[in-house]
Write a structure and sequence with these properties.
Helix content is 40%, strand content 24%. It has 326 residues and is of the alpha+beta class.
Amino acid sequence: MDRSERFYLIHQRLGCQRSVSTRQLLEELEVSPATLKRDIQYLRDRFQIPIEWNAELGGYTLDKPGAEAGQSELPGMWFSDKEIHALLTMQHLLANLDPGGLLAPHVEPLVRRLDKLLGAADDTAEEVRRRVLIVGIGKRSIKLAHFEKVGSALLRRKRLSIRYFARGRGEESQRQISPQRLVHYRENWYLDAWCHLRGGLRNFAVDSIRDVALIDTPARDVPQATLDAVLGPGYGIFAGDRLEWATLRFSAERSRWVTAEFWHPAQKSRVEADGRYVLEVPYADHRELLMDILKHGAHCEVLAPESLRSLLLAELASMHKKYAGE
């Protein structure tokens, strides 16, 4: 019997019986007297369960049960010290997924409970924050109120009315959308949704939502397979229904890094005899892929398709013109 089961059995017996003898608990828990004492002391200290020894009754009792609301109730989860440290670390990561810690206000009660459960250190959460550094590049700020409304509509399956700024065109538009799923990608949040204005699936950057209102109208549900087929097959966050395959060759020096990188679930790769690395990825929109190719400079060569090579050459020519002062 693990510690969780022992705690619940002790609490159950004390709640059902006027008193519970040491012998009964030892027999049912199958532990030593020392372990029983530690368990009872833990319940008293960490969760203020009012367990008392009653010499007259010859057993343990719950003193003043229900005197303070919830004091004699056990929480739904029990964790070991290692599990609590892991949970605190995950909470820290979760709170830092967004600039300003969007989720922090909602998970702070969990941190306080975990600190209380751990008991070994008064500033455990602070120690985690000091020891675990999270560095985000390219984060864009979003409004907590907007994020909360998007999340609420997503889970309640309601529509949203949004005023959206499309950065590519530099234009705003008013739309009604049916949210399908939230995606956290490259430090930012995106919303996959059915756009009732365009009559199709679209991907919206949450930080580009200028205004949002929840509509009491059921959202249109799109099958998961359709979402994956329309928004998921290509490279990066951009959607498209016409896929092409890019073939990239990295230098032997750069392949030491790229061979360990994950670019796409359907990627294909091989290492050539001279150590160069050839990577094939599908894409529906060249913009993000081109950005990632350029960051490798001369260490990456586009082998195919010819259309992608031409786009890269045009970009390089434009860059050369700018820096050459032509």
